[in-house]
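Milestone M4 deliverable, item 7.
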Amino acid sequence: MPDGKKVCFNCRLERNLADFACNNLTFDKLQSFCQECGKKEGSSQVEAEQKRCLGCAKNLPKADFHAMSASSDGLRSRCRKCCLFRLRAIAKRKKKILDSWKRKGCCKCSVTDIRVIEADHINRETKARSSRGKIRRLQKLSLKQLEAELLKCQPLCAWYSFSSSFFTSLAFLKCFVYVFVFLAAID
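Output delivered:
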């Protein structure tokens, strides 16, 4: 290809470089189609009103996309329907991972009903925390974080999970009462 010329991807004609619009995202900094082909298809009008979804590969109105300030055009790369479909698929995968983990059964009484099995951390200090220091729920974790968090847990049925936390809190309360009574006796 001679210097100063380029072949249009659309009409397949060799044209001067001046016949191509600028595009900083391509290697040669020019559009792949000439300006005449762009005008014929009305790509500038379509570009202003529509956006191509990466999920379903359709040109859709910009109103069908969620806002995202970090992107160059201020919109997500997937349409609302594709985002919803993706979130549902991730939620199904999380539920499948959690249910397969719950099928191990309670480690204390061997109850295998997954409706009553809960994740109980073996060491409470290793729980996943958010950036603000709050303990994160298992449903809010990513798939990798969920799998890592379940490795730190033991499956307990609702009875043992309740009773262990209840008796722990009772022991703390009992200790508190003893200290309070002891301090009151000193005065």
